[in-house]
Amino acid sequence: MEKKKRNVIVGQSGGPTAAINSSLAGVFRTAIDRGYKTVYGMLHGVQGLLEGRYIDLSEHIQSGLDAELLKRTPSAYLGTCRYKLPTINENKEVYEKIFKILDDLQVDCFIYIGGNDSMDTIKKLSDYAIISGSDIRFVGCPKTIDNDLALTDHTPGYGSAAKYIGTSVKEIIRDGWSLETKHGQILIIEIMGRNAGWLTGASVLAKGEDCDGPDAIYLPELPFDIPTFVAKAKELLKKKASVVIAVSEGIHTADGKYICEMDEYSDYVDAFGHKQLTGTARYLCNVLSKEIGCKTRAIELSTLQRSASHCASRIDILEAYEVGGAAMKAADEGDSGKMVVIKRLSDDPYQAGTEVKDVHKIANDERLVPREWITPDGTYVTNEFITYVRPLIQGDVAPIMVDGIPRHLYRKGYQDLL
Amino acid sequence: MEKKKRNVIVGQSGGPTAAINSSLAGVFRTAIDRGYKTVYGMLHGVQGLLEGRYIDLSEHIQSGLDAELLKRTPSAYLGTCRYKLPTINENKEVYEKIFKILDDLQVDCFIYIGGNDSMDTIKKLSDYAIISGSDIRFVGCPKTIDNDLALTDHTPGYGSAAKYIGTSVKEIIRDGWSLETKHGQILIIEIMGRNAGWLTGASVLAKGEDCDGPDAIYLPELPFDIPTFVAKAKELLKKKASVVIAVSEGIHTADGKYICEMDEYSDYVDAFGHKQLTGTARYLCNVLSKEIGCKTRAIELSTLQRSASHCASRIDILEAYEVGGAAMKAADEGDSGKMVVIKRLSDDPYQAGTEVKDVHKIANDERLVPREWITPDGTYVTNEFITYVRPLIQGDVAPIMVDGIPRHLYRKGYQDLL
């Protein structure tokens, strides 16, 4: 006789995206469809779970409309954390505590939606389950705008961020030239990505029959040399009234120094020591202003690029939903220590499906933009890059507008200090 | 016998918006419908006209689809300028030159789409027409995201910027709390507006059943006091994990010093002496970081807020089109030295129409947010403000998507150095 199904718990971890809640909706739907009783949502990931903070998702997703709102709600509905589990040797008590909570909640399946650090959590918890003889299954659901997870063709969240970046960069380019005729100006757009240039490369999507696209693109995969950059900017300024350059926040010199750290008055470390890689564009604008004497403007896409649900990619939101469902299905069917990946079957027409991979081969690895997808001189991405990213931004998800503004799914007490 | 209709010339001036091209489409359509032969577009406004730079718009708007694309194209299709005409006494030759060009082009009507400076141009040119006995009519079409023109209920361009600001601030708020539980952080969002707080006030649109909205809003209409601001921020941080504060780039102390000028390492003046009022949020984040010791992040909406056509308001785009048509109609029917204004007939249901006003009563005047629409303590806007702005962001204009990115109307050579 098959064992009676009990409960599921799902959490979100790491940086928010425009698609992470669509995966949450997918997990919830598949869990209910497969006969689980209660789907718990941990608040602020494992960190919140350790403090006994969780909700019953069925009290929040009460209708099909709620599910549609959730898919269109940016950031993490449950809240996330950046908590890194200690190793079992370092602190066994943490594991015992988590498993006690899960047992008390009669949980069979634990789904964690996140990036590299989150997959490390899945790896450690599934290892502990084996050691301790628990039959709880731990499955990861990929999520990160950075698109840097190993073994998956791409990660949910990346497509929507890429669509927002392409759209916004195109509008910034248009804005830039309208006031300029003679003097010339250089706009530098700073885009997220500490080590991987997937997001910055997506600025190329602004390019098309009606727009030149950015004039140069600098990814963090290659060392950044300021004199070469200044020379390139000078050259571009000879040809155009308004030059637009996209740079990754993570660009650094050959010896590993971040450009944003070069500003001696940099405020990138705050009182708590939180490092923000911001100020790269501003620093480079100051350099160009001094070296070339041209008008400059620094534009940071900031957190907008990861939370702009109003400009989400339909492919991305649908895939995020599917991947959530596939993670739940895998856990239900007995998989543990696994992550769902997206496998691309074809570029044109775009076709993709999901597979399940061993999380030990994924956690703490980082997938960068291949060198051959960056031009030899390191100032642009190639057509291969465009072929890769283009399918991921197709289609729109119309926001549900209420009084002129997109409606999100509300969660009471979301801002409470705890 | 009625005089045979000849040609029209239209220009765009000042800061770009998401709606200025819809007005251009309106002028073009009404001019053609009313039997004008050629509709010229001056490139980069009067400045370009003085250099003999103009195009025949019918070569660019060749179909209904082109007109729809133009309405969805942000920034200024023709390019703009910040050229201020000298007075007739200062430099009569400039006027003679302009009128010579207009006469050579057989122009009857001159439509200028712009803000305060542009209305000054209409005033001076229409005055010169009277003095010199020219029968060319000069009519202004309002445009500015700043919403600071006198005598009109609001200006085209404002509604779309307000919708973008409300939408983006809401997404930033969601993003902000997802990672925060205990320590607390303060996000400061910097919004355009040197003297008028209409745009910054629009951040209140993020507020609704599903979102608290910004926790404080500071407009440039009132003097800004840093110690009071720090105290307010401290108080907010006691209640919430993630505090979001919207500030205008133009906030300044009681003695008129801009906050962004206080940063001694400020880079807000570039090599050409172009002043950019940026760095306000960054400066205040540094202050809070030092005074409170909390995590902070500065977010500038930058030029995105004025050029985000992908998030345009339908009311705004339609009104911009109508106002363009009304300006052309007024000029055709003999008006000169006038500007079209929008007159609100009712808030709910929203109804508005156009009227024609004497440009002498508009130019160089500035309409600010009324004191009674700001709360007594100066840290928020009132319900009257919301009632005013809410109708202006209603409805969407679906971008025409090509390969996942909004398509704009292309103009060859737009970036040429001339």
Report low-confidence residues of chain A grouped into runs of 5 or more: none
Task: Determine the oligomeric state from the structure.
Answer: homodimer
Query: What is the string of helix and strand elements of chain A?
Result: EHEHEHHEHEHEHEHEHEHHEEHEE
Strand content of chain A: 15-25%
- Structural class by helix and strand composition of chain A: alpha/beta
Given the C-alpha coordinates, what overall shape of chain A results? elongated
Topology of helices and strands:
2 copies of one chain form a homodimer.
Chain A: E1 7-12, H1 20-33, E2 39-42, H2 45-50, E3 54-56, H3 64-71, H4 92-104, E4 107-114, H5 116-132, E5 137-142, H6 158-178, E6 185-191, H7 198-201, E7 216-218, H8 226-239, E8 242-248, H9 280-291, E9 295-300, H10 304-307, H11 314-332, E10 338-347, E11 350-358, H12 383-389, E12 401-402, E13 405-406
Parallel strand pairs in A: 1-2, 1-4, 4-5, 5-10, 6-8, 6-9, 7-8
Antiparallel strand pairs in A: 2-3, 10-11, 12-13
Helix pairs in contact in A: 1-3, 1-11
